[in-house]
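look at this record:
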Amino acid sequence: MSLRKRVSAPGSPGTTKSSPEMNSPNSARPKLYFKPTDSGQHIQIQPDQVTFRTSSLALLRAKGKAPKSLFFEEDGSASSASFGVEGARLVLQHMYDLWRENRLCDVVLHTAGGDLTAHKLALGAHSPALADKFKDFPTGEIIAIDVTDISRETVQCLLHFIYTTDIKITRQNVAYILFGARELELHVVIHLCLEFLSSYNETTAIVYLEIAESNGLQQLASQILTYIAENFVLITNSQSFLQMSFQKLLVFLSNDSLNVLDELQLFYAVVRWVDYDRNQRLPVAALLLRCVRFQLIPPELIATKVETVDWIFTPRNCHDILFAAYR
């Protein structure tokens, strides 16, 4: 069995530099190619369905709860449970040190921004799917995983979680973290992302809905849609509403379950969206206005509230919609 030398970048854990041996055509490495889960696939992971199978995942429960004594309880009796938690902590720390120092790494992950290294043992412990695929390769072989559709920063974040159980999920990175976790089938990270996305409000609901739909999370998407329908007026005041696509807004306006006081509130929502980028959006304004039931708005309010909008008669088809309301 031949050993292949690894050269790690200074100060960057899990990073590899190219070497003639690694790039040589004669040193062919078996590769695993992982594709994102089909967006049409339904992923429904409930908290009680997440199995903590590894020592590092067990620490998610045990963090901050380590006993004062390593081997003994306060009454002097031996505690195998106490040692078990601390033993798991020691194993995890040792694995982290190996990864940080780029020692004994046997996996190379090709990301969009460069290569990162890791251990099959660590990856397989967090991803049963990866563990099954690793079995197809001889022991001691260096396995290359192609994740070039994921940024280096995202993969680094996922690896950091694998070795430390720490991960920082934010509004800015949750979509990337979820995508990467789904591709590597890291179910605990997927669950953490679902928990984060479930904390939506009037400011984040639209953005989180798009993330849920693009990842096939239909149950979560359905919950957010219900929330948007019930709080539509509040949501129309958010920045994400103004940046919403025409197609998505058309779907919302066509929802008969929208919680609005009257059709005038729906009209104001369309005006606010069009005014955000009037030059680009005015051509589709009539299609949105068709969702407003102008016949339910009193004529005096149409005259004082609707017709006073400066662009309402500019597109001819908008004029036709208002004219029909007077019939």
